[in-house]
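*** Query protein ***
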Amino acid sequence: MNSTRHNRLPPWFRRSFKPSDAHDTWKLLRRYSICTVCESAKCPNLKECFSSKTATFLVLGPVCTRNCGFCSVERGTPASADPTEPERLASAASEMGLSYVVLTMVTRDDLEDGGGRHVAAVIESLRRKIPEVRVEALVSDLGGSIDSLELLLASRPDVFNHNIETVPRLYPEVRSRASYTRSLALLERASSARPCLPVKSGFMVGLGETEEEIVSLMKDIRSTGCRILTIGQYLRPSNQNLAVKSFVSPEKFQEFEALGREMGFHIVYSGPLVRSSYLAAEAYEKLRKGGNC
C-alpha cells in the first residue's frame, strides 16, 4: 500500500482556520457539563466542528472500562450513569440549534445492559426537546447483549453506528477486549432487526494492516447489511497510544472509496481526516434523498 512511513504529518494534513466562535461552543458545553468525544479523543476536526456549532456528544461519562490501544479516552472505573444527563444534553443540543445529533458513548462493561438503556433515554429526551431532530447513535458493542441492542433500537435512532475500527489480525493490540465477530454480529443484527434503518460503520488505516486485509474487512462489513462506511487515517493522540505505522495517501483513500461503492455501500467517506461522525448529517441526507428507506 502506497504510504509514508514516518510520524511527522504529511503535507495533506495542513489546514488553516479563520477566526471562529469555537470557544462559544466549548463554553456552552461546559455550562451544561456535557462531554464530547471531540475533546476526549483529541479529534483533529475539533476546531472545524466547534466553529460550525456542532459536536459529537459522549454520554455515560468520560471514563471507559476498556483500554484500546488507539484511544485516548480516560480508562478506569466509571461513575454511575447520571440520570440528569439526557435532559442536560437535549437542552445543550437545542441551544446549539442542532437538527442532527450524533451521540457516542464510552464502553460500560460494568453495566448489565452495556449502557443501552441510558443511550435510549438520551435519544428520547432529544426527541421531546427537539421534535424534528435526527439522531445518530454511535455505540459500543454493548457487551454483545441482544436485549440491550433491541432496547436501544426501540428508541428509534435515525442511524445506527458501530465502528469495527481495524482488521481482525490487529484486534489483540488495537482492541484487546473487543471481538471482531461480536462487532460484526451487532451490525448484522441491527440491519436485520430494522431493515430500513441506516446502519453505519468505520475503521482506521495506518496501524499496520495490509491492503488485502482492508479489502477483506470492507467485504465483511458490507456483508452485515451496513450501508454507510467511513475510512480515516489513524493519528496517535498521545505517547501512551499506539504509534502510527504508515500515513496513507489521499489517492489511496480515493481508491478505497471507489472500491466501497463497487461493493454496494450506498455512502462512503474515505480520507485522511475522515472520522465516523464527520459530515454525518450530510451522509444521512444523501442516503435519504437516494430513496434508500
